[in-house]
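If I may wish for something, please sit down with the protein I am sending here and say whether tokens and residues agree:
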Amino acid sequence: MQHVKVPQDRIGVLIGEGGSTLREIESRAEVRLDVDSENGSVAIDSVGDPVLGMVAPDVVRAVGRGFAPEDAMALLDDEMMMFELIEIDRHTRNKNDMRRQKGRLIGEDGRTRELMEELTGADVVIYGSTLGIIGQPEEVEVVRRAVEMILDGAPHGAVYSFLERKHNELTQGFNVRQNN
């Protein structure tokens, strides 16, 4: 049995309307979830396929860190999908620095976060003091590197160039152009 802590304001999302999300996670991951809504602790007990059961804590953690349940459940659909969490506060000195860094990661009107998603194919969510990534290993790696660049103070233009270069590398061979 494993335990995952979920922020209070995400418990309702994890449970879903009438418990629908909770039941869907339980049936798809072949686990039993016991949610303590008082302290946000979720006990995860594998009752079926142990491999799926090993992914369940990441699904619960992803929902807890701001992902929509359907995005988090993508982890169950493809064994190569992975979830990674970057602690933004490890790269900041104080609350003002944290606010500034989150602002840089989100970008004007959310553009930086959107570009990370568009150019890598990964899902990216910034919630509280964390940035979560769900995607294929190479997508997650590119987002992680872009995030580290931003947190290290790189100009957005340099990060966007890096993302575009990596996007071209990731999609090379998949571009099928029709000649008219």
Summary: The chain has nine helices and six strands. The first helix runs from residue 11 to 15. Confidence is low (pLDDT under 50) at residues 175-180.
